[in-house]
Each structure stands twice: as C-alpha cells, then as structure tokens.
Here is the input.
Amino acid sequence: MKTPSKQAYVPFVSVANMMKIVLHIGIERVMADLVQEIEADFRRWGKFDKTPRVASHSDVGVIELMPTSDGETYGFKYVNGHPSNMKKGLQTVTAFGLLASVDTGYPILLSEMTILTALRTAATSAMAAKWLAPKGARVMALIGNGAQAEFQALAFKAICGIDEVRFYDIDPAATAKCVANLQGRGIKLTACKTPEAAIEGAQIITTVTADKQLATILTDNMVGSGVHINGVGGDCPGKTELHRDILLRSSIFVEYPAQTRVEGEIQQLDADHPVTELWQVITGELAGRTSAAQVTLFDSVGFAIEDFSALRYIHSKLAETGMCEQLDIVADPDDPRDLFGMLLRSA
Ligand SMILES: NC(=O)c1ccc[n+]([C@@H]2O[C@H](COP(=O)([O-])OP(=O)(O)OC[C@H]3O[C@@H](n4cnc5c(N)ncnc54)[C@H](O)[C@@H]3O)[C@@H](O)[C@H]2O)c1
Here is the structure.
C-alpha cells in the first residue's frame, strides 16, 4: 500500500490534544493571545472574503457553515446550536473546523472547535469590552451559566480586569458548577438567586443563555446608565435575549452587519437601525464609548474571521507542542492523474 507524501498528511487536533495545548499554554494566556490574533485580523478586515454564515434551521436547532479567506489561507467552521440538547445529555454547541492553503487547495489543519469556539467567543467578548466597557469596570453579571460561562468569566478577568463575577441561571446547579470550576482563580464568585441580584453593582452584563425563542433575559428597567452589555446568547433568527427597549437606548456594536441583522438582538429593529462595526472601532475609524452614561451593547453572534484567527493560532502552536495527529485525509497518487490506478494497487 502507498504511503502518503508529507503534504498529503494533515495535522488533526483532537479534543484531547486541544485540551492539552490549552492547559500547556495556560487558559488565560490563550485568551489574551486570541484577543491579539482576532484584533490583528479585524485590523485587516478588508483583506477577507466575508459572507453571512450558511445556516440550516430546524425546529430544534441550527447547523451552520462559517467560511472565510484572507487570500492566502481559507478556513471554515462547522457548528451547531441545539438548546434542547442539554436535556439529552448533549452539548448545545459543538464544532470542528479546517484551514486550507489557497495556493493548492490542500487542507493544512483539521481541528476540534467545541472548546476553541468557547475560547474564541469569550476572547471576542472581552476584546469588545476592552474598547466599549466603562473605564475601571470591576464587576460583571453573568446570566446563563452553561458551557460558555466559565470561559467568559476568565476572559473578562484576563483582558478587562474584572475581579467579581455575579452568576445567575434558572438552574441553580449550573451556577454551582461555575462557582466550583472557578475557585482559586482570583475572581470573587457570587451566586445570585435572581437576575436583578446578579446585575446589582455590575458595570458589565453578559447574557449567555440558550433558548430557541425571543426571550427577555433583561428588561429595560434592569439596565442602568453607563453599563456595557455583552449579549452572546441571541445568535439565531427567532432567538434573542434582550427587550427591544434596551436596544433603542443603546449604542450597538456588531461583528458583520449582514449576519447580525438576521441573527443578533438587532433582528428586533428596523433593517437600517444604526450600528457600528467593531473592526472600525479597533482601527480607530469610528468611536467606541463616548460618554460615561452611554449604554453600550456588543451584539455578539460569532463571525467566521474569529474562527479563522483561532484556527491559525492553534496551527502556529503545533510545531512547538507537537500535540496533534497526522491524518491521511488527502488522496495522493504518485501520478496525480492515476487516482484509479492507486485504488487498484491498494488491494
Ligand atoms: N455569540 C457567539 O459567538 C456564541 C458562541 C457560542 C455560543 N453562543 C450561544 O450562547 C448560548 C449559550 O451557549 P452554551 O454552550 O453555554 O449553552 P448551554 O446550554 O450549555 O447553557 C445555557 C444556560 O442558559 C441557562 N438559561 C436558559 N434560559 C435562561 C434564562 N431565562 N435565564 C437564565 N439562564 C437561562 C440554562 O439553564 C443553561 O445553564 C447559546 O444560545 C449559544 O447558541 C453564542
């Protein structure tokens, strides 16, 4: 049987190796590195092919493909969102992704992305807050204490200097899990019985709940002046977390408007409601927060460039860590035109 050439082997990062890589580097270090990578790619926004993700909806969830390319490297992520999965003992969100060389079209990396998505989502949230949250913010309310929650808490600690997180979930077991998982990491952890109690004294409010409906996790009277809202859980048509009145008095920042207008909180607003693209704040073209009393909202839905940045980061760590396997995923006949002959000879 033919041994594939070096080019035909593709590094594969399994869940086990992703966990090893992240723990080897350090979770907070990875978050900080990812913020740098994503910011660097947002600064060269114009170089990327951009398209809203390709979504296939069902009554219970969504399956999506998220492609992009910077002209040298192509990437995509496969990701699902199934809020009812948790009751079946399954993850709400799972993902894997691929990078390929634009020159040859050959894949250069295949990776698990369930963990990587949680890391990049938290890093993107903290990156947005770095530009938009009120100066000196120390306390964050974290509403929705599922799979994404601890990642969000740690990213805000590492990047924004948050030192108290106030947790609320309709399921107290989820809050208890977060508090247990985050012990000893330099964050004051406060479990709250109501969302109102969680947002008391918080300068940043993160909502990261999962429910396939137009939910109202925050009502208008719960949001005081000057706070920054990091709305993560509303990321699908018909799936939002914030009351419309909050949106009407917020300055709204988004990743890619063509996608966010369909999937984000702003699906509740007119199609021409003004929003600011985050990359323009990062490049200094447009202002972020302009006053202490302003309510800022990062209407996060997750965009392909963030996954691309995260995959490239992991790819860059493989030589140093060796934490990957080699997959025989690309057919590699000695004579490129003799694919059939290679098949016959393999018998
Ligand atoms: N914006 C992005 O880039 C991005 C990335 C990943 C996930 N998400 C979204 O984030 C959400 C959370 O994902 P996850 O993986 O943590 O899901 P999860 O199912 O693990 O956790 C969701 C939590 O929300 C809680 N919850 C549901 N309704 C609530 C309510 N009314 N008030 C308080 N808590 C409530 C649930 O009890 C659960 O603990 C999902 O909607 C997912 O689609 C967004």
User: Anything to note?
Assistant: Residues 6-115+305-345 form a domain with the ornithine cyclodeaminase, domain 1 fold (CATH 3.30.1780.10). The chain has a mean pLDDT of 96. The first strand starts at residue 9 and ends at 13. Residues 81, 86, 92-93, 117, 121, 143-148, 169-171, 174, 208-211, 215, 217, 232-233, 235, 300-302 surround nicotinamide-adenine-dinucleotide (CB under 6 Å).
